[in-house]
Each structure stands twice: as C-alpha cells, then as structure tokens.
Amino acid sequence: MSPPLARRVLVTGATGFVGGRLCEVLALTGVFPFRAFVHSTAAAWRIARLPLDFAVGDLCDRRAVERAMRGCDAVVHLAWGSDAVMRRGLDNVLRVAVEQGVSRFVHMSSVAVYGDRPPADSVSEAAPARRTDMAYGNAKLQQERRVLWYWKRHGLNAVILRPPNVWGPFAPFTLNLISKLRSRSIAIVEGGRNPCNLVYIDNLVQAILLALWKPEAVGEVFFVTDGAVVTWEQSITDHAALVGVAVPRVASPRERMFRDSMRAWPQVLVDRDLRRVLARIPVVRKAESVLYGWFQSLAEETRQRIRLALRGPERLLRDGAGERRFRADDPLIAAQGRTVAHSSAKARRLLGYTAPVSYAEGMSLTEAWLRHSRIIEGDAVPEPAPAPAPAPALAVAAGP
Amino acid sequence: MLGRGVATGPQPLGGTGTVRIGIVGCGAIAETAHLPAVLSSRAVALTALSDINLARLRYLQRQYGLGPIGFRDYREAMPHVDAVILALPNNLHASVGVELLSQGIHVLCEKPLALSRDEGEQLCQAARAARAVLAVGFVTRFFPSTELTKQLIESGLLGEVQSFDYEFGTPGGWAALSGYTLARSTSGGGVLVVSGSHFLDRMIYLFGEVEVISHADDSRGGVEANCTTWFAARVQGRPLHGRVLLSKTHQLANRLRIVGANGALEIKEGQTRSVTYVPSEGGVRHDITAVGTPPAEMEPNYAQLQLQDFVHAIQTGAAPKVDGQQGCKSVALAERCYAVAKPLPEPWCEATLERLSRAVTPASANPAPPELSLAGPDSP
Fold first, then answer.
1. Are residues B157 and B288 located together in one domain of the fold?
2. How much is the average pLDDT of A61-67?
3. Which residue of A8, A25, A49 is the best one to mutate when testing the B interface, meaning the one whose CB has the most B CBs within 10 A?
4. pLDDT the model gives residue B51
5. Model confidence at B378: pLDDT above 60
6. A152 and A96 share one domain
7. A304 C-beta neighbours (distance < 10 Å), count
C-alpha cells in the first residue's frame, strides 16, 4: 500500500523554528508536497533554501488564508503570536479548513496548558487541563478547546500535539539556555533533579508526520517527548559544557513578590531608557527638569544616600561581577519546579511514534549547529591570519 | 533610440535644469531610500511613481503628500520623465530597463544590475545605443571609507597585501514586500546576491579582476541563506586570496579585514567615514579619516549622493560612479560562484532525514498508511 503522497499540506508558522524544520524535512524527503504560509519574508531565509511553494499573508486576513489553503487538503498549524493571531488567526484557519474540506488538521499545542505546576496525573494526556496563572498556557488551552470544538461540531479531523521544551538547532529553548548560561543568569535549582521534559525537534517532526495520516490520531491529544527522561541538571550542565561555564546551584527560590516589587519600583522610575521615553511628554520633561534641579541642589552626602537607597547595595564577587540574583519567575527557573515527566506512551501506541533521535545524538547535532552559527566557539571553517591580541579591558569599579 | 549605432557615451542633457525623475517599483527600498532622496533634492523633480500595486501607490502618495503622479503601468509614466530609478524585483531589471533606455530614458538601476551577465550586457548595449546613462545602485561606493580603503592599499601602508576576509551575517534582515528574494527566478540568487552583491562590487573596485576559487552554500533547491566563497586576485603584482562568509540565519563579525605584512585594515559594516588600521606590532588601533570627510553629525545621505552622481552624469555626459559595465562585473562574478557551487555540509539538517521519512513509508516498523481517514467525531 502506498503512502498518501498526493496530498498537499499547508504549514502555518512556516518561518518559525518548528515550521522551518518541518518544511526542510517535507522538502528534502518529499513525503508530502506542501505550501508554506509566510508572514514576514525577512524571516523566511531558512525555508527559502528549499524549492518552495509559499503564500505571503496574515492569518488574521481571512482571504489570505483562503488563497493559501486552496489546493491543500491538510494543515499543520504552528503559527503563534499576538492575541489576534492566537484567536482570530486560528479561527480563520479552522473555518477555511472546514469550508475547503481539509481532511487532516494538526494543531501544535504545548504541555504549558497545565501551567507551571502540572498535576501529578498529567503523566498522561488524560489529566484535565484548567486555567492557570500562565498566560501562554491559557492561550494554548483556549486554542485546544477551539480546535476540538471544530472536530466535534464540524467533523474537522483534528489532532493536537503537546510538546514540552523543544530543543535542538534553531530552538529558542536552546538559544535561551545558552544565553542565560553565558550571562550567568541561570542556576540549577534543588539539584536539578526534576525532569526537564524535552523533545528534540526532529522527534517532534516525526510525530507531526505521523499525525498527518494515522487514522487513530483523529480527535486525540498527544504528548510528544524524547525517549529518555533527562533531568534539568543533565540538560543544563551539558549545555554549560558547550559554553564553558560553571553553573551555580541554589535552593528552591523563594517568591518575594512584594519586597522585590517595592525594591524594583524606584529603579524602574530612574531608569534612563524609561525617562527618555517619558520625556517625550512636555509636562513630564518639565517636571523632571525641576526635580533634577532640586536633586542637584542637595548636599553631595544627601545625594549619595538617595542613590544608595534607590539602587541598593551592590556586592561584588572576586572577579568584579555583581552577585547574581535569580528571579523565581524566570521561565527556566520556574520550570525546574515541575515534578511531572509527561509520557508519550499514547503517541507510541496509537501513532507508532518512536522518537528516533536519542538525547546524545541530538546534543551532538545541536553542538555542530551552534558552532556553525558562531553561537559557541570553534568554527569548522579555517580562519585567515589571526587578529592581534586586543588591548586589555579596563577594570571598572562598580559602586553605588 | 535603438539601432542608431552611436556609441560615444551618454548624451548630456545640457545645463543644470531640473531633471524629471520617476521611480518604477515602489517596494521597501523605494520608500526608505529613493523617495526621501528624490524629494529632498533640488536637482530633480519627481514626476512619476509606478507600481503594479495600486494600494501601495496610494499609500506612498498619501505618506509623502504627492500629487496625481502614480501609474500602474510604467509605460504610461515614460512621457513624463527624463530619468528613472528602477527598483523593481531583480528579474525585471533587464526587460524594463532595456525598454526605458531604448526610449532615451536614463536609468539608475537598483543592485544587482540583472540576473545574468547576458542580461546586464543587454542593458549596457541599450544604454550605449540610446546614449543614455545607466548607473547601478551600489550605494556603499559613496561611503568615504570605500575610497579611503582603496587609497590606503595603494599607498603601501600595509606593505605586501596577503589576504582579506569579509563577513556579513544577520538573522533575517531586509523584508522585501513582494517576497521576490525567496525565489531564484525573481532574485537571481540568495545571500550572495541579496546581501553580498555590494561587497562583490567593492571587492572588484578594491582589487581589480577577481577569480572564484571555490564556493559552497546551503541551497537545497532554493536560494542559499549561507555561503562561504574563496576568491583570488592580484594586488601590486602579487597573488591575494580572500574569503567571503555570508549568512541570513546568524550573526557574523560584519566587517572587512585586509591583512598585509605591516598590519591590517578593518572596516566594520556601517563604518562609512573611517578605516581602522591595526599595525602588526604594538596592538594600538588607529582610526583613519580622510581630510575633508564631514564630521559624523553632518554625515550626508548616501542615497542622495548617489542621486546627485546620477544627475551629474545626465547633465554633463560624464560616467556615473558605478556604470553598467561595472554592474555587469559583479553579476558575472556571482554567476561564476554559482557555477562552481558545492553544498555546505549541514549534519543537523541531513543526518536524520532517512529515519524521518520512514514515518510515512510502509517499510517502516509503523503499520502501512491507509487511504485518507474520513473518521468523524464519533469514531474514536
């Protein structure tokens, strides 16, 4: 029996991270003909490398969606963005899919539908998801309900995939982790013993391909995760090794919402960028000028006391860097408190999902890409004559 | 007029009267560079604006408070202009440019001049035949740092020039409104043409004839987003090799570095006024600025300088700073790169493809895919 290769798949969000890789795999394997829905041509370079059938437009423009979906009989909806894109954009895609008789609709959701503290029974997708204090998760949950309504009401053959942290080449999760490691603004919390809940991008793509044709997928919600459970400690330390930095370890971060907010307010108000923006308002500009004049008229000792009160004391480590404080609400810190390992057993059973890329192979491919992209040191391309050693940087003393 | 057979350079318009100018193609570069330059110039009068997209025309007319000078068909604009700034997608430069030049209309063509050397030659031939000016919009040639670099190389400051290295890369970048940069048929190439053509032109200007040693890119049937190219040239009678690295997916160093026996010259992208000299010994960096270069706060608008040069060529018959023949050279160089192109290795892209294709292949461990499912909400 031959695969259903005659279908054409519309990929929304095609210039995003998951969309970019999906388009690559579709084009380079030829498993499904496809059309890429492109919002910004500036972001489309990754997929423009491929022989591309594309439509440029905005998902909030229903006519643009109709034009793009013409001739397609399956949709992979990956687009996300503003509230309008999440609601009206999705509605447009769903309505047009029903009108044009699309036979399969794969919707990309997220395990974020359970918020930052998923219930213990969310090992499986059967655990009900409810509104939490996580805006992104709530938006995704609303979308899931909308998609399932179209399945129940209009018979749209919808499939919902819920990946956790998607990692690998081009992944915002990976880039964010590298960036935080480099700026030393991430710590391993409570030994990093909780599961990191990862899915390597190509494993997610395998699930999408399966969801596009497996009859058992229709009307179902699937977790899609890697084969092995990797802890936060392993994931963070493996990435830290690529960057060449040590990672601090902290106990569970305490939420000091009120105290930290009170401390932050004066700093926000004296922030130079904010003042520059506010100064566009003439009355604010005038008030600031008066206030500044008053401040300058104070004795130097008084001015120093005010500065200290606003900025707080600054403690320095031996290398001159300020002591790091870690924000409890930082996504990469907060996520380390998730104790549940979501399971893709259902996807394995119903879709035949195999997670074909192991953690070790994924890390190796990611490292190769990070080096190629100059995100970490070590370019494979030989450099010409090395630059002379730069002059030593001046040490700047920090103080209140 | 085609067929007149006179090839003695552009026919000067004579005098210093205002040149009636039109802009054909009202995309992003027309809006952000050419329209402001034209409207702030006293030497030209904007008499026509042409784009097939009527909504776009209306938007620009309203934005700049223009009169009824919009034409959907550029042919209707032709009686109203002496000269045209041609800012259509690259694949239309040759056909529209030849038509305009044949009518004696002077053309400032956005870069690259054409998709191929043949097309570029057609444009040059049409300009010669009609004695019209054909200039190419390589605006970076008007940066004082470009001229200064050339003079410093020739002055012998570097000693024996040994190598050069140019990098330019940003994730994404220029958003062409029509999306023409996404297909080879309309753009003529990928990052090498879209981002690299300015440097290809400058490289030929700085080093003379340039040969391609090797070119590798990541095109997989579309336009490349990354490429690495090695070139060879001769400077002061000695061979010179250099590497050009371009990316549309990630950040690069974004600078030109020319290394000689005595030291190196560095010019960062956007370093328009000065050149940095780094001697081999001492480690002190020197910023060199030519005497007479305007201070940073009085830096001119380079699109306007380019326009002035074009108008000067029209009025005096002098050659523009970048003429059609020079435009042809960078097009030909890009063509030679693509002719020897090899794929850049991308293990993160290729290593898993075979495994992933099994997701829809009957031979896999998965059950064979059936016909399209018609399952409805009640079937699970």
1. yes
2. 96
3. A49
4. 96
5. no
6. yes
7. 12
pLDDT score for A254: 59
User: Chain B residue with minimal CA distance to A42?
Assistant: B175
> DSSP labels for A220-236?
-EEE---SS--BHHHHH
pLDDT of residue A241: 96
Question: Tens digit of pLDDT for each residue in A158-183?
Answer: 999 999 999 999 999 999 999 999 98
State the Cα–Cα distance between residues A167 and A110, nearest whole angstrom: 14
Mark yes or no for CB contact B225/A2 under 8 Å. Answer: no
Do A293 and A317 lie in one domain? The reply is yes
Inter-chain touch B222–A44, beta carbons under 8 Å: no
| A382 pLDDT more than 50 | no
What is the span of the domain harbouring residue B52?
A: 19-139+306-321
* The two structure tokens encoding residue A1: 């029996």
> The domain that contains B182 carries what CATH number?
3.30.360.10
Mean pLDDT over the full length of chain B? 90
Same domain, B50 and B177: no
B109/B190 Cα distance (integer angstroms): 19
Instruction: Kindly report the number of other CB atoms within 10 A of residue B271's CB atom.
Output: 16
State whether B351 and A210 contact (CB < 8 Å): no
Encode pLDDT of B275-334 as tens digits: 999 999 887 899 999 999 999 899 999 999 999 999 999 999 999 999 999 999 999 999
* CB B9, CB B325: distance < 8 Å: no
Which of chain B's residues have a Cβ under 8 Å away from the Cβ of A374? 250-252
Task: Tell me the residue range of the domain where A299 lies.
Answer: 257-325
What is the three-class DSSP state of B141?
helix
Structure tokens given for A272: 């130079």
Q: Residue B360: which of A56, A157, A209 has the nearest Cβ?
A: A209
For A4, the closest of B219, B372, B376 (CB atoms) is B372
ipTM over cut 0.85: no
Q: Which residues of A touch B220 (CB under 8 A)?
A: 24, 27-28, 49-51
Query: Do A18 and A151 fall within a single domain?
Result: yes
Cβ-based neighbour number of residue B87 at 10 Å: 25
On whether residue B147 sits in a domain, the answer given is yes
Q: How far apart are CA A209 and CA A211, in angstroms?
A: 5
The reported pLDDT for the residue numbered A311 is 67
Instruction: Sort out which chain A residues have CB atoms less than 8 A from B179's CB and list them.
Output: 38, 41, 44, 54, 56
Question: B227 with B195, same domain?
Answer: yes
In a domain, B63, yes or no: yes
Q: In terms of domains, do A264 and A141 share one?
A: no
> Rounded to a whole number, what is the distance in Å from the CA of A338 to chain B's nearest CA?
29
- B220 and A27 within 8 Å at the Cβ level: the answer is yes
Chain B: give the shortest CA distance to residue A206, in Å.
Answer: 6
Residue B13 confidence (pLDDT): 54
**What CATH code is carried by the domain that includes residue B314?**
3.40.50.720
* Single pTM value for the model: 0.83
